[in-house]
Write a structure and sequence with these properties.
The protein is an alpha+beta fold and about 240 residues long. About 25% of the residues lie in helices and about 40% in strands. The protein has 2 domains: about 160 residues; about 70 residues, no CATH class. The two termini are about 15 Å apart.
Length: about 240
């Protein structure tokens, strides 16, 4: 499970996000990401941000693509992780982006010892704001820091009380409960499984993963969807 959350750093009356990610006549620069982690969770961050800016008609627009790599320096697989990145354009702080990984239901998503995992998000939208009057431009900057890491043995490092960490754990619990219901329904037959699969979760993030199972059922059939559910539960049982 992967997800990103963007928060505008500037006042919302000044900065807003629009749907287009293409800037006409924009200047593009590549910025190295500085690891500013305040906790030593044996996860090293690095990477680049490709940032494009333009000033048109008194409006400053910025878009970016992030390539952030996490290297697992520990001797245990990383099962879950939350990082936060700060990105500044030529007028100052622009956006704060949280990136989350949870491999609780899939060994394939774990970051093995010494392995590098690269998070790449191509479409972050375009951020638009009025050009500040008499404002001097500054150097572009990008930094990332580890908020939380959970290893495959259940041990953790970082701030477990961070909102995004709590949300990740809540999503995991809600998804686990939904998968258990699907598994129980499957023992009653395909029709009961499909009825249970149609029930949407109140947790948006959990429901997005359930949507993947719904799509799989439409593409590959009910047996494949049941198998996927039971495979996820089998991995969870090893935690």
């Amino acid at each position: 499970m992967f997800r990103d959350t963007n928060f505008c750093v500037l006042d919302r009356n000044q900065l807003h996000r629009v749907s287009s990610s293409l800037l006409c006549g924009a200047q593009t620069a590549t910025i190295d990401v500085a690891d500013q982690s305040k906790v030593d969770c044996l996860a090293r961050l690095a990477g680049e941000i490709e940032l494009s800016e333009s000033d048109v008609g008194g409006v400053h627009q910025t878009s970016y693509v992030d390539h952030i790599t996490t290297t697992n320096l520990s001797k245990k697989p990383i099962m879950a992780m939350v990082i936060v990145s700060q990105i500044s354009n030529s007028y100052g702080p622009m956006v704060q982006q949280y990136s989350e990984l949870d491999a609780f239901f899939s060994h394939k998503l774990e970051i093995a010892p010494s392995q590098k995992y690269t998070h790449q998000h191509e479409d972050n939208g375009t951020f638009s704001m009025p050009v500040p009057q008499d404002a001097a431009k500054i150097s572009l900057a990008a930094s990332s820091q580890v908020v939380f890491v959970q290893f495959s043995d259940g041990s953790t490092c970082g701030n477990r009380d961070d909102y995004h960490v709590v949300d990740l754990m809540d999503t995991r619990a809600d998804l686990f409960q939904a998968l258990q219901k699907l598994d129980a329904a499957a023992t009653e037959g395909d029709s009961e499984f499909l009825k249970a699969l149609a029930v949407k979760s109140n947790n948006t993030h959990a429901n997005s993963i359930l949507n993947n199972i719904r799509d799989q059922q439409k593409r590959e059939g009910t047996a494949a969807a049941v198998s996927a559910v039971r495979e996820m539960l089998a991995v969870a049982a090893t935690r």
